């Protein structure tokens, strides 16, 4: 199932995707069974196999569903409409910090989880994770490119690596959050990343772009 089909899914497919996402975020892909997904969704196994060939196929669809939901949340954030590209970058980091503070937020990333759990055993899902990470980095890189052209045209840094650095910081922080059961770790690490950005883009002491 591709992203387009996920976006136009029927109510039954959406029930299956939401149930599978909750289970896979909570206990991982390997430990989640088709039977559990069907029970959680209130859907028969016959209906499940009408739409999906098996667990790997729904796993691929759930991954697209998860990423689509996250991208919609980002596009709905106020910072996405700001004209200044550097402010959009800072606003994105701040938006992720704000999300991390919400008590109801589940500080887990299905994309990162799948990459860790399945890279050695499910090559198709591994490749799918790689594509989504690339798309995420490209989204950040577009604003970083525009910000660099405007505020730091002569400074030597690679915007692709800087975009990937954000992903590495966030995903690594989520691992620490799980290990230490301390959700404040995510905010601290994102603030470190923002401070690093500010040093690259020569932000003054008032936090305004020069």
Structure description:
With 210 residues, the protein is mainly alpha-helical. It contains 10 helices and no strands. α5 packs parallel to α8. The longest helix has 29 residues, at 123-151.
Tell me the layout of helices and strands.
Elements: H1 3-7, H2 11-27, H3 34-41, H4 45-51, H5 55-75, H6 85-101, H7 110-118, H8 123-151, H9 159-180, H10 184-200
Helix pairs in contact: 2-3, 2-5, 5-8, 6-8, 6-10, 7-8, 8-9, 9-10
The main β sheet shows up as: none
* Structural class by SSE content: mainly alpha
What is the quaternary state of this protein?
A: single chain
Counting DSSP H or I runs of 4 or more residues, the number of helices is 10
Amount of helix:
over 70%
Distance between the termini: 46 Å
| Structure summary, number of beta strands | 0
Strand content: under 5%
Instruction: Return residue spans where pLDDT drops below 50 for at least 5 consecutive residues.
Output: none
